[in-house]
Amino acid sequence: MNLIIQGLNAVLSQHTATVQSIATMSAAEKIIPLKSNAVRLENVQCDASILQSIQELCLNAQLDVYHGPSRQLNEFKLVAMDMDSTLITIECIDEIADMQGLKPQVAEITEAAMRGEIEFQESLIRRVGLLKGLDASALQKVYDQRLQLSLGAENMLKRVQQAGLKTLLVSGGFTFFTDRIKSRLNLDYSHANVLEIVDDKLTGKVVGTIVDAEEKKRTVEKVCQELGISTRQAIVMGDGANDLKMMGVSGLSVAFRAKPVVRAQANVALNFVGLDGVLNLF
């Protein structure tokens, strides 16, 4: 088993004492620099108590730590990603609501749903209902003016695509955004909710099946079936409670800037580095 320690800044030069302390605590055989902001501690010995102490030490130093076996990227065939607050920095529905002057009300429901305090379907119906009557042009404004890719997203996708992995964007958000991102980033698959628009205005309703936690999991399973692979050959990234089911069937689950309930259940939590931090695990 290895420990991968990474941060936004140079790890070995700026966190020398922390890395040395962790190496001693874990009885690491070697410290291998991966790049300036990441190191691998090889053949470590960590029981649950030691690992918890290491995780707390890293959290205080704003470092991400992963404990696991050596893996090869070619073990995997698919990368499945949540969109809002994972592949992109915003929650699209909150920004749409801002066009209605309703961002605080909608954002409060979004946060409760991501923490797992409200069922996702109920939360989506409530939030979309508040958007009734909004001019559909607000969607394009959000895409043009507010939507940004998360740190490291483009580099991560470039590397996994070069390695031959397929890509899936599966979102409890809306096809207006997933369709554009799929085209922009040359993704292979996408699945999201369809907002009903009549006479260029939002009706406050969603058309068809709501993409909740169960539907996200079904989508990952369906795409894996189409590719002729096991879900254990999928890397799944998310941040909210509605991502847990699809993360649970994956071979590697990645919590990105995630809620505590998600971090606790994921194989790896990236709290500080970008999405491309996942590449340092391989």
UniProtKB/TrEMBL annotation:
Keyword flag Metal-binding: yes
GO annotation, biological process: L-serine biosynthetic process
GO MF: L-phosphoserine phosphatase activity; magnesium ion binding
UniProt KW keywords: Amino-acid biosynthesis, Hydrolase, Magnesium, Metal-binding, Serine biosynthesis
Membrane spanning stretches: none
Active site: 82, 84
Reaction it catalyzes: O-phospho-L-serine + H2O = L-serine + phosphate; O-phospho-D-serine + H2O = D-serine + phosphate
Cofactor dependence: Mg(2+)
Record family assignment: Belongs to the HAD-like hydrolase superfamily. SerB family.
Full protein name: Phosphoserine phosphatase
InterPro entries in the cross-refs: HAD-like_SerB, HAD-like_sf, HAD_sf, PSP
CC annotations in GO: cytoplasm
Keyword Amino-acid biosynthesis: yes
Pfam families xrefs: Hydrolase
Involved pathway(s): Amino-acid biosynthesis; L-serine biosynthesis; L-serine from 3-phospho-D-glycerate: step 3/3
EC number: 3.1.3.3
